[in-house]
Amino acid sequence: VGPGPRDNRFHALFLRYDVTRPFGDADSWQAFDASATDGLHSVGYNGGAFDGRYFYAAPWQQGPKPDGEGGFVTHGIVLRCDTLGDDSAFSLRWCDLGHNGGLNAGILGPSFLVNTDRGCARVFSPRPLSAGRHHVVGTYDGQAARLFIDGTMVAEREHTGKILKTDLPVSIGRIQDGAAHFRGRVLHWQVEPTAMNVHDVTHLYETEIPHS
């Protein structure tokens, strides 16, 4: 960034910090310059949005107008970063609080994400859960993703596609490599080879899950 508003030099430098490592350790930080991604001159973004797989940088400005003092060249180039590739199949989350500085915001309540060959399917509840014990379930049958809380379906979204296969182990109470630990207790978990229907989830909650 230049010394004044008329001298701003826009960039596409992304900086990432590994929260599981010491803040002052140089190995805890990674940087990437995306200003020439796919041959595009991609600079000047303001926040972004994240769907569970792709991060979309919101277009803003890319530099001063050559023939207009004090003006800037706006653009509509959306920069998309694939944060998963083929390295994840699904994620069931208690909450998804995130950065709220630009155009991005975290989901307060539980969410369920499925990584398929036709994109990421995501369902969520906008309300945070109350303190105490809860039963949270996510299902996907190739036609729709569904989220259940305490035996009741709270969200559903139509989506078609095959779940991507991965060799990574299932992570419980954390994200891969130990990041973002769940500040609670996971008393029971299971992964089923076939999708449960609404009746199955309700029956599971009412008959097999301890409520106290």
TrEMBL record:
InterPro entries assigned to the protein according to its UniProt record, in alphabetical order: ConA-like_dom_sf
Protein name: LamG-like jellyroll fold domain-containing protein
Organism: marine metagenome
Lineage, top ranks: unclassified sequences, metagenomes, ecological metagenomes
